[in-house]
Structure formats: C-alpha cells, structure tokens
Amino acid sequence: MGRWEPNARERLVHAAVDLFAEQGYDNTTVSEIAQRAGLTKTTFFRHFPDKREVLFAGQEMHSRLLADGIAECAESATPLEAVAAGLDAVAASFTPVQREFGPRLIAVVTAHSELRERSAFKHAGLAAAMTEALEKRGVPDPAASLAAELGAHAFSRAFARWIEPENEESFPALARQALEELRAAVELLG
Amino acid sequence: MGRWEPNARERLVHAAVDLFAEQGYDNTTVSEIAQRAGLTKTTFFRHFPDKREVLFAGQEMHSRLLADGIAECAESATPLEAVAAGLDAVAASFTPVQREFGPRLIAVVTAHSELRERSAFKHAGLAAAMTEALEKRGVPDPAASLAAELGAHAFSRAFARWIEPENEESFPALARQALEELRAAVELLG
C-alpha cells in the first residue's frame, strides 16, 4: 500500500464517527477505525495522533480561517463585524459531509466527559485565535476577548442550527443571526 | 493509620502543587503526593480520583456557590447583578492559602496542555452552572448564557488579579470591577 491514499483523512473521520456512534467511543480502537476506512493504522497515525483528535480535526483550520477572516476585514469594521467576517471565512470550509455528520458528531461528544472537555478546549482555542486577531486590529482588552467569546458562542449556536435536518439557511446567515441575538441579549443584562 | 486525617484534602493539594512546581506534573505520582503530605495512597484516593483532579478540586463547590448566590439574589436584580452576587458567594469560600497557592497553580496549569484543557472545561462548567441558575430566575436564552459567560470571565480575571502579590483588594471588589469592565467593553463592539 502506497503512502498516498485518496481522501484518507475524510474516510477516517467517516469511519470513526460511524464506529463511535455504533459501539461507543471507549469500545472503538484505532485499528478498527483504520480497518473500517480500508486503510492501515500507519495511515491513521499519519493523519491523527489518537482517536480523540479525529473528532477535533478541524480546530486548527477553523482557528486559522477565523483569524484570517478577521485580519482581512476592512479597517473601518467594528469588532463584531470583523468577527462576522471570520465566521464567513470559516463557513467557506464547511462541506455537505460535515453537515450530514454533525448530529452524530455532537451526540458522540455530548455522551463522553473526556470529549466534552476536549470540546470546551476547542471553544477556548477558537476564542483565543479570534482575540489575538482582534488585538492585532487594535481592539483593546477586554473588548477583544468579549467579541471573540460572542464569536465562539455564535459559531456553536449557528453550527447546531445549520445541521438541523429541516434547516435551509446558510451557515454565514445563521452565524450573523446568532451574533445579532447575542448582541441584542446584552441589552437585557442590566 | 485511621480513616480520618486532619486537613487531609488541604495537605494533599499543598503537596501536589509543590511537587508539580518542583519536578513537573508528568513526573509526579500519586504515591509521591501522598508521601509528601504524610498520608497514604488510600487516603489520596478517598479525596481525589487522580492527580489531575487535585488541581480542580474546587470546581463543584464553586459551581454550587455561584448557583446559590444567583438563586438567593433579590427578585428585582438584573442578570448581571445576580452574577455579581454569585461571585460574592464563591469569594466567601476563598482562603489565604488559595491566594498564596494561586500563582504556582496557574503556572502548573498553563505549562501543560492536558491541564489547560481541563481548565477550559472548568470554565465551561462554571458558566453552565450560572446559565442554569439564571434561567431558573426567568432570564431568557441567550441572555442567560451571555451573562454567565461574562461571569466566568470576570471570575478568571478577578482571580488572576487577586493573587498578585501587591494586590490589596478583596475578591468581590475585583470581580465587580472585572464585570463592569466587561459590561463597558460591550459598548466598543459595534
């Protein structure tokens, strides 16, 4: 078997989410994931350090896209407009497969405390990436971390809505809606 | 050795933070922690499931105190006033020992990705406890989770300031200050 496998990464994510949903996260081994994907364990470890990271494979890319979107935004944009641009940029990376997989992925993560922990860390990582990008634009602390936190919340809320079977809206539209709801909720805080 | 040991929990936390700071988190075993504390491994496991949880021992109590503080607040209080009351309640549990330990604790957690992950989970847990308590007061979503998120941020920011050697302010005063800064930062978001 050669080193290069077409769509190996995507096939591994597919196989892992299927197996986790079928037989549980704890009961699934890396060997089984590789086998289900028609690949070797070696190929698995070329793509992921362990089975947990298969579920959080997008984090680095999401962080980078959010930061790039914020950086490339017009200088005149407000912090929340920049965050919205970041969310647009990350949305461009989403595929129909991710949408189809979303509900199973969320179910697997929710069912397992180690994965919920990892998920909280992803949330914090996305917020940190946005905070840094906003600070580079000259947004002062704590406005930068607050805008980033709203962005990370909007990301989660929009993702949860986007994967609903009956949803027909685009991720960017849902993300802007979520950001707007959060922004409006500020008025209720007192 | 009897089942009851005076201040066993506190002695174990002391010993663990000292050892983690001295020789690293990965290089420290539960046996060493117990030995340094003058206790047995069995006593350790009566208090903590593993060495990591020694560092997050306060999470359940903090969540409960935050929720209680929010629940017991006057009906007329705004969501942020309720959050401030929750932070007051949790501050009442802080001891001079925690303040003394704070810088070492933060250094250990910051140096280790597994601990940063666990710390993000604690942050999310505190926010979830506050969100639930606010929703019970009738605060609608997403205002409840937003107020809770500001509360969790204020908690971290105030704690970081409280443990600074030159600090002379109380935790509740610092927490209110942090909340007010976050509230004011909202005006900059656009």
Automatic annotation (TrEMBL), chains A, B:
Q: Which UniProt keywords apply?
A: DNA-binding, Transcription, Transcription regulation
Gene3D superfamilies referenced in this protein's UniProt entry, alphabetically: Tetracycline Repressor, domain 2
DNA-binding region(s) in UniProt: 29-48
User: Which organism is this protein's natural source?
Assistant: Amycolatopsis bartoniae
Q: Which Pfam families match?
A: TetR_N (PF00440)
Molecular function, one GO term = transcription cis-regulatory region binding
Looking up InterPro entries in the UniProt record yields: DNA-bd_HTH_TetR-type_CS, Homeodomain-like_sf, HTH-type_TetR-like_transc_reg, HTH_TetR
Q: Where are the transmembrane segments?
A: none
Recorded superkingdom: Bacteria
Q: Does the keyword Membrane apply?
A: no
Q: Where is the HTH tetR-type domain?
A: 6-66
* Official protein name in the record: TetR family transcriptional regulator
